[in-house]
Write a structure and sequence with these properties.
Oligomer: homodimer
Number of domains of chain A: 2
Organism (chains A, B): Sedimentisphaera salicampi
InterPro entries (chains A, B): ATPase_NBD (IPR043129), ROK (IPR000600)
Largest sheet of chain A: 5 strands, mixed
Radius of gyration of chain A: 21 Å
CATH topology of the largest domain in chain A: Nucleotidyltransferase, domain 5
Mean pLDDT of chain A: 92
Strand order of the largest sheet of chain A: 3-2-1-4-7
Low-confidence stretches of chain A: none
Keywords (chains A, B): Kinase, Transferase
Protein name (chains A, B): Glucokinase
GO molecular function, one term (chains A, B): glucokinase activity
Structural class of chain A: alpha/beta
CATH superfamily of the largest domain in chain A: ATPase, nucleotide binding domain
């Protein structure tokens, strides 16, 4: 690959508060990046700022807008990725029905691909991050919910209905807790960071004996981070809460193995701050529940692109969609 | 597509008792077919018969071996599809480690693709059968076990480990019945034809009140077919057995929806003899358990290639792998 080429690839990470924009060369080295605030009025206001910011980014890199070969946009919510339209996005209500790919594409005179944020992060880890050494991978994001991206034989799983890789809504306990999606017993409703804290808070409210009670009494709630900290410090109640989280993720990984049999499952999202213990306990439960009649080879690890994964992943997706090198 | 072309595509369906062979033109019209017995000694004995049979099939079609453009082989078991090697196959122990694609390819002087039987059947339904009108589909085979094939964006899901689409081993009840694979609560261990009969037999043994008791006392066991027949005739016990089967398949379909969001789930295998009632009850439980927060569009139907699905699917896979038309 010729890294002296002047081809540029743009990654745009559309968030509820900020839009991050990154400018990359063909080898996905970041040349410059910037953030602009998300305007809460019309998408065109924000996107015009994005395009203006882009022009200065490109100049910073010593190049011109004409050098842009393609752009990728990562966005949460339900998307029509084929048409490049945002159908609905909870944190970006003003983008409902907006044909964002066409708008950006016309401004920069280059093709533009739209993809949901989990898929973008997954593609980034696959091409340049924790899974760059394998062919088949799954990304699980452990945050407010549990999101996912599935890559098999070098391709992101999509589908006509745009609801593929909703891995947090795999049902673990059919008669279990009610999930925000209305199903019962989804993985997400036990094992996301939010759900882990919620389970702790419910039992602290009922008087559970725990070193977390002081925080709970003072502030009315504890965070997932605090639950993991107290578990690490030896609090039995906090440990049991985190064990159920690990058990549910372990069971989810068993189902992921049976469905698409990835070489690696990569974890990202706020909860990975819990560190190696989290991976160890997920592995423990995976090994406990997985079939023993065949040779099971799988690796668990953390994402390593971190806060720039959205712009790296969407720029890489733009390159790999339009300009396979 | 020019149907007057003399290009031939061969489908080979390798079974424990018979090998079925079909000869197709480019439009996948069957020109001739034949079966040869599976020799229980060396694979080469059987495959030499297959190649001889093939020569006469081709002559029957008024053509020559030189017209063969590609062949596909469908086979149960664990396969290395990239190398065309049968790793292990329970009903074909003598094929263990045999490089079948290379052997057949050298005999017919044409490329040869190896694929597991469920994937072959799935590809057949996708290209020429019940799912020919959609882009994304899943096949579920309901027989001795529950097998699967997943097609997204026009491609069969594979994986490095060759264990993708083992949909019968998605866990429905984490603390449930032990499955043949050693996991607990797999869909297969409740809802395959074999498991459905087994659950009935266990309870009949314990004295369950049912019109099936006469058969059970006389023969020591009832079949899945009989359970469905008695359920249809109004036997309450038999109905409850079939309801749990439908509930488990419904829950499995919820997980399938979340994972790869197919347009259609196509059912095949012996149990589909139960007919429309089976589909209706699966739909009932799917609709009961599926999320209500998004627009869910999915169709359930039966496979329609039936007994020739193995040879049609493998011939179509050969055409689509080597000679995309």
């Amino acid at each position: 690959m010729d890294t002296d080429t002047k081809d540029l690839f743009i990654g745009i990470d559309l968030g509820g508060t900020f839009v991050k924009i990154g400018c990359f060369n063909e080898s996905m080295e970041m040349l410059s990046k910037i953030s602009v605030p998300t305007d809460d009025q019309h998408p065109k206001v924000t996107l015009n700022s994005v395009v203006n910011a882009l022009a200065s980014l490109v100049r910073q890199a010593g190049l011109q807008l004409e050098n842009i070969k393609a752009a990728g946009i990562g966005c949460p919510g339900v998307l029509d990725t084929k048409k490049g339209v945002i159908i609905t996005s909870p944190n970006l209500p003003m983008y409902k029905g907006f044909a964002i790919s066409r708008f950006v594409s016309e401004k920069i005179h280059a093709p533009c691909v739209l993809e949901n944020d989990a898929n973008v992060a997954g593609w980034g880890e696959y091409v340049l991050g924790a899974a760059e050494d394998v062919d088949d991978m799954v990304l699980l994001t452990l945050g407010t919910g549990i999101g996912g991206a599935v890559i098999t034989d070098g391709k992101l799983i999509h589908s006509a209905g745009n609801s593929a890789a909703e891995l947090g809504h795999i049902i673990i306990f059919p008669e279990g807790r009610e999930c925000g999606c209305t199903q019962r017993g989804c993985a997400e409703t036990y094992a996301s960071a939010t759900a882990t804290a919620k389970r702790a808070n419910e039992m602290l409210e009922e008087g559970a004996v725990s070193s977390l009670q002081n925080i709970f009494i003072e502030r009315g709630e504890v965070s997932c981070k605090e639950v993991y900290e107290h578990a690490a410090q030896g609090d039995k109640f906090a440990y049991e809460i985190t064990e159920l989280t690990a058990k549910v993720i372990g069971l989810l990984c068993v189902d992921i193995f049976s469905y698409s049999n990835p070489d690696k499952i990569v974890f990202s999202g706020g909860m990975i701050a819990a560190g190696q213990t989290l991976l160890d306990r997920i592995s423990f439960y995976f090994n406990k529940f997985i079939r023993k009649d065949i040779n099971v080879k799988i690796e668990f690890c953390f994402a390593n692109l971190r806060e720039d994964s959205g712009i790296i992943g969407s720029a890489a997706l733009a390159r790999d969609t339009f300009c396979l090198v």
